[in-house]
Amino acid sequence: MSDGLQGVVEGYVAAMRPKGEDFSRALAAFAAAGAPLAELPDLIAAVHKFAGSAGSAGFMRLSAIAALIEIGLRGARDAGMLEDTALSQVRCLGEDFAAEIAGLAAERSSLISGEEAPVYAPFARPLRVLLAGLPEAVARMLTHVVEQRMGMAWSLPDAAMLAAVPAGRGPDFAVAAAAAAGFAFPVVAFAPSRFDAIAAAWPDA
After folding, report:
1. Which pLDDT tens digit goes with each residue over 169-187?
2. Hey, which bits of 101-169 come out as E strands?
3. pTM of the predicted model, to two decimals?
4. Residue from 134, 27, 106, 13 nearest 70 by CA
5. Is 132 in contact with 159 (CB distance < 8 Å)?
6. Is the pLDDT of residue 27 over 90?
């Protein structure tokens, strides 16, 4: 690893942490205000930049979480409203985004650690999202949102099955109950403490 690369990543962290904190506050205020549609263009533009720049800097989980938030916000823009289920998802993912920003550090970048491959071009093609070991209601909700807006989603009953995904056939990212390293794709932690809020808002049928 060159000192130049270390400096670039550290510069990204220094520049993007305050911007990420600002976005987290703006997204929380947006959700608390009942998701006013007039605020969507600025939020979408901001989170799209995070989805791309975080991936390029090697912060895969931050990139993937930002991509999921963008899916939800673009869906609201296209539908002219943000349904309760989608708002609940965006609020929960916003908390995950804030947690990633709080822990942003150069050593977590794949460009430094070599543990993960960065995501460079979100939405350059349909996203492929793998849902692993999630409660049924959460998996149904995420499948609906992804397939209606930005790509394709598949479910695995157990997150341990991620290890059997063939090389070269991996998704753009996976969503599981806990983050995991050592894969050629990011694994986003969809915090178990937030499952109840999602499941309660999503219909059984």
Report:
1. 788 888 888 777 778 788 8
2. 127-132, 151-156
3. 0.66
4. 27
5. yes
6. yes
Q: Residues with Cβ < 8 Å from 110, sequence gap 6 or more?
A: 58, 59, 60, 116, 117, 118
Q: What pLDDT is stored for residue 120 in this prediction?
A: 42
CA separation for the pair 186, 31 (Å, rounded): 26
DSSP for 150-165, please give it. Answer: TEEEEEES-GGGGGGS
73, 101 contact by CB (below 8 A): no
CB-count exposure of residue 63 (10 Å: 0-12, 13-18, 19+)? buried
Please tell me which residue, 50 or 147, carries the higher pLDDT value: 50
Using alpha carbons only, give the angle 179, 6, 45 rounded to the nearest 5 degrees: 60
Instruction: Give Cα 89 distance to the centre of its chain.
Output: 11
- For 58-92, write each residue's pLDDT tens digit: 887 788 888 888 888 887 888 787 777 677 778 88
Q: Are 150 and 123 in contact (CB under 8 A)?
A: yes
